[in-house]
Design brief:
It is built from eight helices and 15 strands. It has about 325 residues and is of the alpha+beta class. It has two domains: about 190 residues, Fructose-1,6-Bisphosphatase, Chain A, domain 1 (2-Layer Sandwich), CATH 3.30.540; about 130 residues, D-Maltodextrin-Binding Protein, domain 2, CATH 3.40.190.80. The strands form three sheets. It has an eight-stranded mixed sheet, with helices on both faces. Bound molecules: 2,5-anhydro-1,6-di-O-phosphono-D-mannitol and magnesium ion. 2,5-anhydro-1,6-di-O-phosphono-D-mannitol binds next to strand 5. Magnesium ion (MG) binds next to strand 5.
């Protein structure tokens, strides 16, 4: 079979469907190249001195791993000089990173979670990078945080790289979802799955069960009904998976269906869940919707949430459409 590289795929998108601009194509290629570099570091592990804590804290008070910091630097450096961006924002940085004056300024805004699934770094379990692209508002002038506070429906591209047994890049520019596998010998991304689709029904769910006692009633009900299996109200047995790397859980769901949940719970009423809207929930919601699935915060589409701050957190329910609709309906009951 003829191999299609990421570059060829993007050029064709640009040429035939007018789906992307030349600047956006460059942006995606640069992000993909940065992910290749991160993948290389991940692969070295202890041999590359990338494991363990960086002994610093990020803006959310989480202790940063060395690889969180390294991945953030790789993405910043790769994306500064190309002229395609106005600014970047990252889960690991307090505020936005405008493009330095010595480089031309472009029209896009890039957001990323440089290394998702940090708790899995030191134990050699799949981790990833998640990214989201917005257009800077017309006449923005100097970039500021406000420019980023657009609902997820405004994303022009979103994707993730998963660093697992294989390194893969899953990408959407709003016309379906495609998956590329990194050819490690050639150093190139090769298109390996076109138009990924999430089955509407599933028998598999993903949630951190250890938090069960803290969940609100709708989530308790939904999970209890699944756990009751064949003789319960759902009349079928369910299976559970929890990798604790959102990228890896979402990647499984894109391939064979399932529902992923990280709900808000009763522990801290001021904190609506763990995952971040701009770097995790929005890009994953765009990918999942583009693959025929659904993504809500229990009330409505994640993509329609108007953000009020950069590091905002949201409850997340995403994956197979019928299951996401069911748990969302339980929140309204
Ligand atoms: P991180 O961005 O600090 O790695 O945190 C996000 C991760 C997700 O990838 C994953 O779904 C979740 O945290 C796991 O949380 P928990 O350890 O509570 O199960
Ligand atoms: Mg994360």
């Amino acid at each position: 079979m003829k191999r299609v590289s990421l570059t060829q795929h993007l050029v064709e998108q640009q040429r035939h469907n007018n789906a992307i601009t030349a600047e956006l194509r460059l942006l995606i290629e640069v992000v993909a190249r940065a992910c290749k570099t991160i993948s290389h570091s991940v692969g070295k592990g202890a041999l590359g001195d990338i494991l363990g804590s960086a002994e610093t804290e990020n803006i959310q008070g989480e202790v940063q791993k060395k690889l969180d910091v390294i991945s953030n630097e790789i993405l910043l450096e790769a994306n500064e000089w190309g002229g395609h961006l106005a600014a970047m924002a990252s889960e690991e940085m307090e505020t936005i990173h405008p493009i330095p004056n010595r480089y031309p300024m472009g029209e896009y805004l890039l957001m990323f979670d440089p290394l998702d699934g940090s708790s899995n770094i030191d134990v050699n379990v799949s981790i990833g990078t998640i990214f989201s692209v917005l257009k800077a508002p017309e006449g923005m002038g100097a970039p500021n945080e406000q420019a980023f506070l657009q609902p997820g429906t405004q994303q022009v591209a979103a994707g993730y790289a998963v660093y697992g047994p294989q390194t893969m890049l899953v990408l959407t520019t709003g016309k379906g979802v495609n998956c590329f596998t990194l050819d490690r010998e050639m150093g190139s991304w090769v298109l390996t799955q076109r138009d990924m689709r999430i089955p509407e029904d599933t028998k598999e769910f993903a949630i951190n069960m250890s938090n069960k006692r803290h969940w609100h009633a709708p989530v308790q009900r939904y999970v209890d009904e699944m756990l009751a299996g064949k003789t319960g109200p759902r009349e079928k047995d369910f299976n559970m998976r929890w990798i604790a790397s959102m990228v890896a859980d979402v990647h499984r769901i894109l391939n064979r269906g399932g529902i992923f949940m990280y709900p808000a719970d009763m522990r801290d009423p001021s904190s609506p869940g763990k995952l971040r809207l701009m770097y995790e929930a929005n890009p994953m919601a765009m990918i999942v919707e583009q693959a025929g699935g659904a993504a809500t915060d229990g009330n409505g589409r994640i993509l329609e949430i108007v953000p009020h701050k950069l590091h905002q957190r949201v409850p997340v329910f995403l994956g197979s459409k019928n299951e996401v609709e069911r748990v969302t309906a339980y929140h309204q009951a």
